[in-house]
Amino acid sequence: QSYCHRLRHDMNFLTSTSRLNEQVVDKIVLQLNRVYPQILTNEEAEKFRNPKASLHTRLSDLLKHLQKKGERHCQEFYRALQINAEQLFNDLPSRKILKTPDPTEIDTDKEQYMLNDRGPVFFLACFSVAAGLAVFWYCCNSETQVIGRARRILGFSPIIIGRHVRNICMLYLEDISRN
Q1: Model pTM?
Q2: Per residue in 36-57, pLDDT tens?
Q3: What CATH number matches the domain at 3-97, 1.10.533.10, 1.10.1200.10, 3.40.1170.60, 3.40.50.10190?
Q4: Considering all CA atoms of the chain, what is the largest pairwise distance in Å, rounded to the nearest integer?
C-alpha cells in the first residue's frame, strides 16, 4: 500500500477524539517543518499549530494537505508519528492490516499451545523413559568400579542430586573400598 492510501485509511482513526493531544500534534508539525527534507513550510507549520482552531480541524487539514503533496510527505508524517506517538502508530488500522499473518505462515502461539497440550501423563511417561535410560546407562557403564550396593543406590542419584555431587560420592566410595 502507498503511504497516501494508508493515510486516507487511517484518517478517521487519527482524528477521532483523544487519540492525539495538542502536544503530540505540535511535535509532529514541528518535525515535519524542521527535518530534512522540509515537508511543511514555516507558514504551513504556523497554520497547523494555530491554537485558535480546534485540534480536530487542524489535524484533518494537516492530513488532507499531506495527501495532496504526495507520497514522500505522507511517509514523513508516518515517521514523525512513530517517533512522537509510537503506541498510537502501532495501533493504526493500516498497521494492523500489514501485520496480518500470511496464511502459509505458522502461528507460533497456536503451535506452542498444541505442543504443550499433552497433559501430565505424557510428561510423566517421557520423564520415566529418560530416567530409565539414565539408570540403564549408568549401571552398564564399565568405567565405574564401585561396591555393588553403593552402585545401586547412587544409580538413582542423577534424579536426586547433581552429577558433580554424585561423582564426588563415587570417588569417596572407591577410596573407602581400597582401604
Answers
A1: 0.54
A2: 778 999 999 999 998 888 888 9
A3: 1.10.533.10
A4: 99
